[in-house]
Design brief:
The complex is a heterodimer of chains A (about 110) and B (about 110). Chain A is an all-beta fold. In chain A, the strands form two sheets. In chain A, strands 2, 4, 5, 6, 9, 10 and 11 form a seven-stranded mixed beta sheet that branches. Helix content of chain A is about 0%, strand content about 50%. Helix content of chain B is about 0%, strand content about 50%. In chain B, strands 2, 5, 6, 10, 11 and 12 form a six-stranded mixed beta sheet that branches. Chain B has a four-stranded antiparallel beta sheet with strand order 3-9-8-7, with no helix packed on it. In chain B, strand 8 and strand 9 form a beta hairpin. Classes of the chains: A mainly beta (about 110), B mainly beta (about 110). At the A-B interface, strand 4, strand 5, strand 9 and strand 10 of A face strand 6, strand 10 and strand 11 of B.
Chain lengths: ~110, ~110
Amino acid sequence: EPEVTQTPSHQVTQMGQEVILRCVPISNHLYFYWYRQILGQKVEFLVSFYNNEISEKSEIFDDQFSVERPDGSNFTLKIRSTKLEDSAMYFCANRAGQGPDTQYFGPGTRLTVL
Amino acid sequence: AQSVAQPEDQVNVAEGNPLTVKCTYSVSGNPYLFWYVQYPNRGLQFLLKYITGDNLVKGSYGFEAEFNKSQTSFHLKKPSALVSDSALYFCAVRDNSNYQLIWGAGTKLIIKP
């Protein structure tokens, strides 16, 4: 099965600090997603990204969040000023193309904001 | 509004017995349905999907799911459970307007030896 990787596996930060979560997608998969899962709650969509721009974003994805592909391969999620409620597992997902293609998920980054 | 419901927070099954994890959905247009599994401290692993065609879909690790359009259900099944199947199972439906996945709350499956 194709593999998406994410770094770091666990990030601990102080409230108000910036964090960058990194994702290495599957080669030639063109669609990128970030989801988050607060402990004990359901998975929530954050943002989708295609052709170097945001396709869709949820109400969670406010001005504190941003995404980019800085080097054309890695896909990053930046949280500019973290809040306690940002503590969650963040999953990157990757899809090959149009249609109902499967989204493949990375192992996640556990973000803990203190 | 499009949604997914997993009515059971937890399902307990004895090893060797058949298991069913329930999922119902609400979506406009054709439903594209997915099951993912999450093992402790691991990411979401794709199990299977229904796009079109045969209502019985076979996936990884011996799992299968049955699409029932009239009941808007997509229940996950396995004929004989293993202790290693113990995990969190998520049903998802694709939003046909923007391709994002809409998730159920998850069902914890516990298989007892």
